[in-house]
Amino acid sequence: MSLSPVRVPTARHALRAGLTTVAATAALGALAGCSAGSAGTASSAPTTPPPSASASASAAHSVVLDERARGTTVRVTAGTHLVVRLHSTYWSTPAGSNPQVLDAVGGGTTTAGTCPPGRGCGLSSAQFTALRPGTAHVTARRHSCGEAMRCSPGQERYDVTVTVTR
Prior knowledge:
Immunoglobulin-like, four-stranded mixed sheet, 32% strand, elongated
């Protein structure tokens, strides 16, 4: 039986591997911060996710939308609670276009506890109650997609059409 020598990494090798991992993680995070659909949702409220061009919910339910819903039409019934969560503080607070159809009941920007400069860590969110049948748009804008990074076309506007039925 022959024994092979065991190679023990030096502190220098461990440091190089750690720095490589940190650099790769930072690069991926910077790219994800400006992608067209950069983050998913996580919610403890009952939701109807918008993976397709439309989503439905019955009265007394909540519908949670994020970046993936951009450009879609969401169908809800009167009485539905609609939550829009955009995963960057670079977004303006989402606004409804027709207060007779969607009543704004809250929203704003919440920053993350610790965030590297230029990442926009946090949420820009709004909450609405679907009041009566009709159509409204929920829109938000951003001009920056990272520290000193202008958004490319298609990344600076969020627009979802909300159709309220009885």
